[in-house]
Design goal:
Elements: H1 3-12, H2 36-48, E1 52-56, H3 63-73, E2 78-79, H4 89-93, E3 94-99, E4 102-107, H5 109-116, E5 119-122, H6 130-134, H7 137-140, E6 145-147, E7 152-154, E8 161-166, H8 183-186, E9 189-193, H9 199-210, H10 216-236, H11 253-266, H12 275-283, H13 290-304
Parallel strand pairs: 1-8, 1-9, 2-5, 5-8
Antiparallel strand pairs: 3-4, 6-7
Helix pairs in contact: 1-3, 9-10, 9-11, 10-13, 11-12
Length: about 300
C-alpha cells in the first residue's frame, strides 16, 4: 500500500486525515511501501481506544518507519523524544532548565503529547532503565500527571497515544544494553510482533530502488536475487540456526535497502568494478567477523553466479 491508499483506508474506517501536515508530522518517504497487515494493526489500535502500542521485532524490520510513515500518510503529528540508557523521567515529563534571568520549567515531549492529544514515539524502549518505563504506568492508563514544579495537573487529552519500539533482549542475537521489562509496564501495552517482509513484499521494495538506474527487467532480476541472499543469511543467522557455523550477523530490510541504494550509485555513475560485492561489504559485511563475512560472500556468489 502507498500513502494515499493508507489515507483512504483510514478515512473509510472513520480515522480522518488532517488537511495539512503539521510541523511535527513526519516527512513522507515516497518509496515507502506499507504492508497491509501492519496498516490493519494500526487502524485497529486507533479505533480500540487503547493508549500504548508496543512494537517488538528485530532491528531494521521497519518498526520505526511504519509508525512514522503511517502518521505522515494521515498528516498526524508524532513527537519523538530521544531515548537512551541515560534517559530519566524528567527528560520525558519535563524539568527546570536555566533561562535568561533565572530558571524556567519546560514540559517534556511526553507530557506535551498528553496535554494536546498527540502521538509520541519512544524508540529503543527497553534500553531505558525499568524505573523510567515503570514511571509511565499511570499515563498509559490515562491517569493524571501532577507537576509539582508548576502546580499543574494534566489529564491526557483524547488522541494521546504512546508507541514504543523494542528489539529482543537477547545478547545471543547481538542485542546489548536491553533491559528486562517490568511485568506491570508490559501489560499496559497492545503488543505487536514484527518480522521481516515475505519475499513477495520485499522484492518490490528493492526493485523500486533499483529502477531509478536499471531497466525494469534488470531491476526485478537483481531484486529477486538480493532478497534470496537476505533470506539465506537470515536462515543461517545464529538467531535462527543452531549450527556451529551459524552467521554472527543478519540482513535486515534496512540493510537490504542500503545495499540496493549502493548498487544504484556504484553500479551506475560510481563505476565500482563489482558493485554487488563492493556495496554489500559497506552495507553489511565490513562489520561482520571474518568467518561470517566470507560465508555471506559465498552465498552471494552462489546466487548471483558470475556477476558477483
Amino acid at each position: 500500500m502507498n500513502h494515499q491508499e493508507v489515507r483512504e483506508f483510514c478515512e473509510a474506517r472513520g480515522i480522518m486525515a488532517l488537511a495539512q501536515p503539521t510541523q511535527f508530522t513526519p516527512k513522507i518517504k515516497p518509496d515507502f511501501s506499507f504492508r497491509k497487515e501492519h496498516v490493519v494493526e494500526l487502524v485497529g489500535f486507533f479505533l480500540l481506544g487503547e493508549i500504548g502500542m508496543m512494537l517488538r521485532g528485530p532491528s531494521g524490520c521497519g518498526k520505526t518507519a511504519l509508525v512514522e510513515q503511517f502518521h505522515g500518510a494521515i498528516n498526524y503529528p508524532l513527537l519523538q523524544p530521544m531515548t537512551h540508557a541515560r534517559t530519566e523521567a524528567p527528560d520525558l515529563n519535563g524539568q527546570i532548565i536555566p533561562s535568561e534571568g533565572g530558571f524556567k520549567y519546560v514540559h517534556g515531549l511526553l507530557v506535551q503529547a498528553a496535554r494536546y492529544g498527540l502521538s509520541v514515539f519512544l524508540d529503543e524502549y527497553n534500553v531505558m532503565d525499568p524505573s523510567v518505563t515503570t514511571s509511565l504506568n499511570p499515563i498509559l492508563e490515562g491517569g493524571k500527571i501532577d507537576i509539582p514544579e508548576t502546580g499543574e495537573t494534566i489529564f491526557p487529552k483524547e488522541g494521546f497515544r504512546v508507541f514504543a519500539a523494542c528489539n529482543p533482549n537477547d545478547k545471543g542475537l547481538g542485542f546489548f544494553g536491553r533491559n528486562e521489562e517490568d511485568a506491570s509496564n508490559k501489560e499496559r501495552f497492545w503488543v505487536v510482533e514484527f518480522g521481516y517482509p515475505t519475499p513477495d513484499q520485499e522484492v518490490p521494495i528493492v526493485s523500486t530502488i533499483l529502477k531509478s538506474v536499471f531497466d525494469d527487467s534488470t531491476a526485478d532480476s537483481y531484486a529477486q536475487k538480493m532478497v534470496e541472499v537476505a533470506n539465506r543469511i537470515r536462515q543461517q543467522y545464529m538467531g535462527e540456526s543452531g549450527a556451529a557455523d551459524a552467521l554472527e550477523v543478519t540482513m535486515s530490510t534496512r540493510t537490504l535497502r542500503r545495499w540496493a541504494k549502493g548498487i544504484t550509485v556504484f553500479g551506475g555513475q560510481g563505476g565500482a568494478a563489482n558493485p554487488i560485492t563492493f556495496t554489500l561489504a559497506r552495507a553489511l559485511t565490513n562489520n561482520a567477523p571474518r568467518e561470517s563475512r566470507d560465508a555471506i560472500h559465498e552465498i552471494v556468489k552462489d546466487i548471483f553466479g558470475a556477476t558477483a
